[in-house]
Amino acid sequence: MISMRFLIDCFDHGRLVRLLFLLLLLALIPVGETYVALHVGGIWGAYLTVAAAAATGLLGLILGSKLLKNNLTFVQAKLHDGIYPRREFDSGAGIFLAAVFLIFPGFITDIIGLVCFLPGLRIGFGRILTRKMDPNLREAYEYLKLSEF
To answer: How far apart are CA 110 and CA 115, in angstroms?
Structure first.
C-alpha cells in the first residue's frame, strides 16, 4: 500500500526537478557517445572503432572481476581481525561502478570508467554510493563477524 507521505514526496517540486535533470543527463549520454563514436569512426574506421568498444568492455569485465576478488580478500582479512571494513566496502562499490562504465559501449563512459578505477577516486565514488547503505553494511558486518567464528 502506498503511503500518503510517499505520494507527497513524489510531487515535491525540488524532487521532480532533480529527477528531470537526472533524466536529461541520462538522455544526453547516448547522444554524446554517438557523436564521439561517429567522429572516432571517421578517423579509425568502423571496424577498429567497434573492436575498441568491445575490447574496453572486456577489459572492464576482467579488471573489475580481478579487483573485486582482491577487494573481497581484504574484506575477509579485516573481518577475521574484527575490524569494520568501511574502506573496502567503499572501494568495492567504486570498482563495481568503474566496471559498469567500462562495460557500457562508448568512449565517454570508457574514460569515466578508467578514471573511476584510480584508487583515490574509486574510494570517493564508492563512498558516495554506499553513504546511505552504511547501517545495512554495519549490520552485514556484525552478521558476518558472528557467523565466522
So the answer is: 9
**Cα within 13 Å of Cα(134), Cβ side:** 8
Answer yes or no: is 99 within a domain: yes
The residue behind cell 581484504 is: 74
The answer for residues whose C-beta is within 8 angstroms of residue 75's C-beta and 6 or more apart is: 85, 88, 89, 92
> How many domains are there within the chain?
1
pLDDT digits (tens, 9 = 90+) for 20-39: 888 898 888 888 998 999 99
Q: What is the pLDDT of residues 54-78, one digit of tens each?
A: 898 898 899 999 999 999 999 889 9
In a domain, 94, yes or no: yes
Query: What's the 3-state SS for 57-105?
Result: HHHHHHHHHHHHHHHHHHHHHHHHHCCCCHHHHHHHHHHHHHHHHHHCC
Among 63, 62, 88, 64, CA closest to 74: 88
User: What's the rounded Cα separation, in Å, for the pair 97 and 76?
Assistant: 21
For residue 78, the enclosing domain spans 45-148
